[in-house]
Amino acid sequence: MKFPLFRVLKILSAASFSFMFLPLLMVLGAGLGARGGAAFWIGPMLLLVAAGCVGMAYKAWLHPRLERSCGMGLALANITSILLAAGCGWGCFYLATKFTIPEPVYNWTGFAFPLAAGILCGVAFLSGSIVFEHGYGEILTPTYLAVLTGVDAVCLLIPWIMKWQVSAGILAVDYLIVIGVAAFARNQSNIDFLMARRKHSLNHLPSKMRWYSLGLVGGCFAVIVVGFLLRGQLAGLLRWCLEILRRGLVQLIQWLFGGTSETEELPPDPSAPEIAPPDLGLAEESGPSIFWTIFGWLMLLGVLVLIFYYRREILGGLRNFGRKIGELLHRLLFRKGRMIPAGNQEGYYEDDIEDLPREPAPKTVKKHRPYDMKNWRKEYRLYRGMADGEDKVRAGYRLAMLYLLLKRVPLTSSDTPTEILQKSEKVLPSNLFSNVTTAYRQVRYAEMMPSSQQIQQLSEMLGNCAAGKETV
Amino acid sequence: MEVMALALICGLAIWLQNYIYRKNAFRGLKYRCYLSQDQVFEGEEIELIEEIENRKWLPLPWFKSEITASRWLEFAGAQSQVTDRQRFVPSFFMLKSYQKVSRRWKVKCLRRGEYAVEQIVLVTTDLLGNLTLSQGAEAGAKVLVLPRPLEEDEIRVTPRSYTGDIIVRRSLIEDPFSIAGVREYSQFEPMNRIHWAATAREQKLMVYNNDSTSRQNVTIILNMQSREFEQFKTIDEEVMENAIRVCAGLFQSTLVSGMPLRFITNAATDDSRTTIATNEFWGPEHVESLWQLLARLRLKSTEDFPIFLSDNYHSITSTDIVIVTAYLSERILEFVYRKQAEGVRLRVILLGEPQAGLDVSGCDLLQLVPLELEKEAAV
């Protein structure tokens, strides 16, 4: 039998809608003197939900029948049913308060509180019958959640100002239930919306897709619930970690500054155990020393320098460690890769589902920066440091070629020095570069020593290029 | 305060899942779409394969790929939406972390042509529907659908060719390599033509009976005009599709005899106004290339057929000619009679009825009516 997921979500959403009236009832109750604990408010909460559910049932079953038989009297029947729900609510609350509210406030509270509760039950009944006509995704909307948060905030603020005692725990539970149901409904209605937007049939969805999606939301919600239930323990753990960290820092500062730190002036924590001072091999009575202070600073500086110098290795090591932990967890938690054949109901396609190995992410290759003027200037500085001679001319000519390429002159490997000279007319001064080309030819092909004037001309030309001056 | 803290935590959780999905939904995701074959015959079934890999921890519970393909690639049945020219197919996936899904769609190629998967859009969402992300994927899977040769059971042949004696061309010189059998010696044959084994068996002189052979080749001419006064775009598309299938069948028939084949038509494979005239060749590769050509033909005539015939009159030098046309006119018949007068064997395959009053008595005419068209006409 197929599980009626949508129907269940709709009933849960419509039932959760009534939770909005609980904080109102709690404030009214607190104002009227009904100031019970969390256990006291479970009954009213359930009664409000029951009123909402009865409203739904009325809309689902009774209303269509009344519509057929009563005709014009339908409005009267509706009003009667709401009044009946309010009356039932009043009756239940009257009986409940009779046994739970203390005798001194019984007279006034015993009448007014059930009356207010009865009215809210009638409202819950009405809202239940109204929201039942909507789709399950349209009941607990973000607007509703915002209103609920606002109502909760106001209902906590008023008792705080008036110094009334209100059980906030039951409100938190109420809020958590609404959030959970809203998350499930929204998750499923989102799938419906995405399918309906392009008029896709819901039959085309892969099998178990809804349950998987629901499971993911359920997992996230479970984490929040567990966090909420263990909030005290988690807060304690966090406090303990922070305390340890604080003590460690105090110890470090004391060790570095030889006990002259301002932190010493902090009042001692009576609950904290005694922590033995670090044994540095010094006599206790020796006191703070300028030598150890400087040594401590140098040590810290050295550690920081080492961390910075080996930062890549440290990061890589940490990453590898994390990866190995991940692989270990994966081996423990997941099955190995397998192939599952699947398909859709109509038989239009067949699926092969395969688990992939958790391969490490491909290593990012550091991209080399393209050759630019910065690199060229670096090479030019090296050139300037070279001794005069053949090598300097050849290196200088090479730099001139690179400069031309940076200026997007279309040089090819087959170009002769004459062709390069012709191509460089618009970039380099032709008279200087002509002399440089002659010097290069003599050095390269005639094995002649360059003159100092030629080297000077070459350096002058390259210097202009490096300075970014208009060379032509 | 607990309620407010709870509201804050829930809000933070919603924002966090939103942020994680926005930043990482398409990270580590690899999508590929391809077809199992790149060439197939009309009506055959192939596979369209979608491969999607989710190489990350984040699961994608709802993932959709929207495939836009030609409407003549039939797949996904009711799941697809068909327009005038295109077919949109949504494909839904549920991707868990580190999971690969390979989906195989059965695709039926309905009509000849060159088709491709034109566009693919990938869509996903977060858990609570606050976010819908989409991204284009690389499309371009192509298939060439060859025309299916028209089979005998698909057509009704109306004999319109003349009956009686048929002139058989015979060469004066016999082919010494083609032996038809043995016959009795007639005192005129040279000694090297005597078949000694048959002589011994028959106890009288027997000689080889050589066959008369000659080099034969065929030119198939397709008229892309479906009507006489039609310009450019073909009006009767179904008729011309059948004409193309007839041509495909004729190409196939030459495979058995190994006859050199040439194909010319007043149509093009692109939007240009050129005509097509292939080289003369034989063999399976040549026939396959001609089928590919037919697959790419546009249903648009680039030149008036009688003019096209007269322009190519001297370039058509084959011993056999087959004209596949949807209509016959006096100017076409003029070409036919002139070629017949030159001793060329010419056959006209007509898809439809000849014009009233047109004298086709001297023409070797074969009238084909594909049964599908006949059924449509009856309806």
Features:
heterodimer, A: 472 residues, mainly alpha, two-stranded antiparallel ribbon, 2 strands, 68% helix, elongated, B: 379 residues, alpha+beta, Immunoglobulin-like, Rossmann fold, 3 domains, 7-stranded mixed β-sheet, 7 helices, 24% helix, 35% strand
What would you call the shape of chain A? elongated
Q: How many strands, which pairing sense, and closed or not: the largest β-sheet of chain A?
A: 2 strands, antiparallel
Question: How many β-strands of chain B, per DSSP?
Answer: 20
Count of discrete structural domains of chain B: 3
Tell me, what's the shape of chain B? elongated
Greatest contact between two chains: A-B, 50 and 44 residues
CATH topology of the largest domain in chain B: Rossmann fold
Task: Tell me about this structure.
The complex is a heterodimer of chains A (472) and B (379). Chain A has helices spanning 5-17, 21-32, 38-70, 74-100, 106-131, 142-162, 168-197, 209-229, 231-257, 290-309, 311-333, 373-384, 390-406, 417-423, 430-445, 452-467, and strands spanning 339-343, 349-355. With 472 residues, chain A is mainly alpha-helical. Among the domains of chain A are: 5-228, no CATH class; 373-467, no CATH class. Chain A has a two-stranded antiparallel sheet. Chain B is α+β, with helices and mostly antiparallel strands and 379 residues long. Chain B contains seven helices and 20 strands. In chain B, helix 3 packs antiparallel against helix 4. Chain B starts with a helix and ends with a helix. The model of chain B is unreliable at 159-168 (pLDDT under 50). The chains are: A mainly alpha (472), B alpha+beta (379). At the A-B interface, helix 6, helix 7, helix 8 and strand 2 of A face helix 1, strand 4, strand 7 and strand 8 of B. Strand 2 (349-355) of chain A pairs antiparallel with strand 8 (99-109) of chain B, so a sheet runs across the interface.
